[in-house]
Known about the structure:
Helix content is 29%, strand content 29%. The protein is α/β, with parallel strands linked by helices. It has a single domain, classed as HUPs (Rossmann fold, 3-Layer(aba) Sandwich), CATH 3.40.50.
Amino acid sequence: MKILVCISHVPDTTSKINFTENDSKFDSNGVQYVINPYDEFALTRAMWFKEKQGASVTVVNVGNASTEPTLRKALAIGADDAIRVNTEATDGLSVAKELAEVVKNGGYDLVLAGKESIDYNGGMVPGMLATLLDFNFVNACIGLEVDGDKATIAREIDGGKETLSCNLPLVIAGQKGMVEEKDLRIPNMRGIMMARKKPLNVVAPVGANAVTTTVSFEKPAAKAACKLVDAEHVEELIDLLHNEAKVI
Ligand SMILES: Cc1cc2nc3c(=O)[nH]c(=O)nc-3n(C[C@H](O)[C@H](O)[C@H](O)COP(=O)(O)OP(=O)(O)OC[C@H]3O[C@@H](n4cnc5c(N)ncnc54)[C@H](O)[C@@H]3O)c2cc1C
């Protein structure tokens, strides 16, 4: 089985977010980047298939050269090789079109992505990719087994879980639950050394044009100060909820 894992390069969740150019550009100064957490679940599941069932695992990012340390981290975790499509990734459809070309050229059976990137939160790339390829697609996956060309997938639904089956080729948008959090891998020294020698192929984009442009970004309003009311003073709490918060 040939597996392709799509890796989005996103700011660490502890990053301070700022904007420049009249709030229309993200300021990447001082920002640490990581593998998108949902992609880490997908990559860990891919490693399981490689080790238990025999599969090759390629990781791919659509982005400029600054994303290479993130791809090297995926190689250190255990992927066999990496592909970087050398273009500025600025919208979901153009990213999906670039990824579709990689899938066609590489003949992958199973494409694993995250259900959304935690920076732009579009949640659109995997579905668009499956449509462009005419592959089956399952979103919000929390469990995946593959036997031959048949996949059994668990997905989260409101208040429960659905199990379904479908054939490869398949695109999966995964999330927490695809593997246990304790099974996520931190690259060790051997993995980091080996990753330096693994192929990271930079390929030219097909030139898919972005169809959206960012007009502006806005941060959420600062949270109001928190008032603590002693458990003994219920009347004070009711008064505050009634006259100040005006919620009762
Ligand atoms: C000016 C600008 C520059 C940017 N530069 C980069 C960059 O260099 N590298 C980068 O990764 N992002 C970059 N981004 C973010 C880029 O916009 C997103 O990758 C893309 O728009 C998809 O975002 P989304 O929120 O719709 O993805 P979603 O649909 O929420 O992502 C779902 C899943 O799709 C896959 N995926 C998403 N984006 C990519 C990608 N670029 N490559 C491979 N798999 C992907 C991942 O598995 C992800 O978990 C940039 C954005 C802007 C505005």
